[in-house]
Automatic annotation (TrEMBL):
Domain of life: Eukaryota
Name recorded for this polypeptide: Essential protein Yae1 N-terminal domain-containing protein
Family matches, as PANTHER family: PROTEIN YAE1 HOMOLOG
Annotated segments matching region Disordered: 1-23
Biased composition (Basic and acidic residues): 14-23
Matching InterPro entries: Yae1-like (IPR038881)
């Protein structure tokens, strides 16, 4: 071994360099894992928020329509009871069933409202209720600004 090896390092220095590289790899691995956890948490939070917003919007829309039809059913029953609207006996019975069903959805909360998709029990009731109410001149109308109104159309069109 010559003097330069002692000053500049010997073959054993390459082992220390490898140890330094291993330490660097460990530190890089820690940062990589930390970055992964942070990105995962951020993405998870964003996905949860998006899911909440979509579900909330669907629930609000279903609630608005459900409330609208429940109100129409009550109005038709009231007008019929006061003799101001002629409703046949079969339709009166159907209106009673709709009223009970719609009130049940209201009382059971938004979990059943959020699933108001085609083929779902609530969607079927709303569709049938809509058809029956249209027979007596009421239809669901969206007004700009996301509000709804009763459109009493005496012609039933």
């Amino acid at each position: 071994m010559d003097e330069e090896d002692d000053f500049f390092g010997s073959q054993s220095d390459s082992n220390e360099k490898t140890a330094g590289q291993r330490e660097l790899e460990v530190v890089q691995g820690r940062f990589r894992a930390s970055g992964y956890r942070e990105a995962f948490a951020s993405t998870k939070e964003q996905a949860l928020q998006e899911g909440f917003e979509k579900g909330f919007e669907r629930g609000v829309q279903a609630s608005e329509e459900l409330g609208f039809w429940l109100g129409v059913v009550v109005v038709i029953q009231k007008l019929s009871g006061d003799g101001k609207l002629s409703v046949d006996a079969g339709d009166k019975h159907q209106l009673d069933l709709f009223k009970l069903s719609l009130k049940s959805y209201v009382e059971n909360g938004s979990s059943s409202l959020a699933s108001a998709e085609p083929g779902h029990h609530l969607a079927e009731h709303l569709s049938a209720c809509s058809a029956l109410c249209a027979k007596y001149g009421f239809k669901y109308t969206k007004i700009p600004g996301n509000s709804q109104a009763i459109d009493p159309d005496p012609s039933g069109e």
